[in-house]
Amino acid sequence: MPQIKKYSPIYLALLFHVTGVLGILFTPYKDWFVYSTPIVLLTMFLLLSYTQIKLSKEYFVFFIIAFVIGMGTEIIGVNTGLLFGDYQYGQVLGPKIYGVPLLIGLNWFIIVFCSGSLLTQCFDILRRKLNANIPTWTFSMVVVLGGAAIATCFDIILEPVAVKLNFWSWENGHIPLLNYICWFIISAVLLGVKMRLKIIRVNTFATSLLIIQALFFLMLNLFL
After folding, report:
1. pLDDT tens profile 26-77
2. Per-residue DSSP letters for 208-222?
C-alpha cells in the first residue's frame, strides 16, 4: 500500500476526533459538533473502505450482513426490550426505521470490523514473535471471542458518553448487564461470519480507527 494511502486516512481520522473533543468540551458550539456525528461516522466508513487492501465481494456481503443484523437486533431491542434492555434513541443520529437510526447499522459494521482487525493484527504479531504454527480453528476462536470482547469493551466506554450527548437514553438512567451480554453475543456471531467469508484479515487503518475512537470517548468520559 502506498505510504500516502496508508497514513493519510489515519491523520484525517485523528483530525476529526481531536477537533470533535475540543469542539464539544471547549467551545460554545457543542451542539453543532454533536449533531455532526453522522457526517463523521459516514466519513470513517468511507476511509475504512478506501484503506481495505481489496474491496472484494465478501467485504460488501459482510457489510450488508452486519448492517441488517445490527439494525434487526436494535429494532427488536428498542421496541420490545427483549434485547439490550429498555432504551430509546434521540434525534442526533439522524433518520430512523422503527425507532432505530440507520447509522446504527453502519456503526455495528465499523465496530465489529475494527475489533476483529485489531485482534487479528495482535494475534499475527504474537504468532510471528513465537514462530508458532497455530491451527486455523484456534486462530478463528481467538478472533471471534477476543474480538467480541473488544467490541463489548468499546461499548462500555461509549455508553456513558452516548447518554450524555443524547444519542440514546436508558429507562431510569440504568444501563443493564443484558446490554453488554447482547453486545458480546451479536459481535461474536458477526465475527464468525467475517471469518467464514475470509475477508483480507488486517486493515491497519481499522485498527487505528478503533483506538482513536476509544480514546475519543475516554476523553469525553473524563471531562464531559
Report:
1. 999 999 999 999 999 999 999 999 998 777 889 999 999 999 999 999 999 9
2. HHHHHHHHHHHHHHH
User: Domain residue spans in the chain?
Assistant: 3-223
Contact between residue 123 and residue 142 where contact means Cβ atoms under 8 Å apart: yes
Which is nearest to 81 in space by CA: 195, 191, 171? 171
The arithmetic mean of pLDDT across residues 117-145, rounded, is 80
DSSP structure class, residue 38: H
- Asked if residue 3 has pLDDT above 60, the reply is no
Query: What are the residue ranges of helices labelled H in the chain?
Result: 3-26, 30-34, 37-51, 57-80, 102-130, 136-164, 177-197, 204-223
Q: Work out the number of other CB atoms within 10 angstroms of the CB of residue 149.
A: 16
- CA dist list (Å): 60 to 52, 56, 117, 167: 11, 7, 16, 27
3-class DSSP state of 89: strand
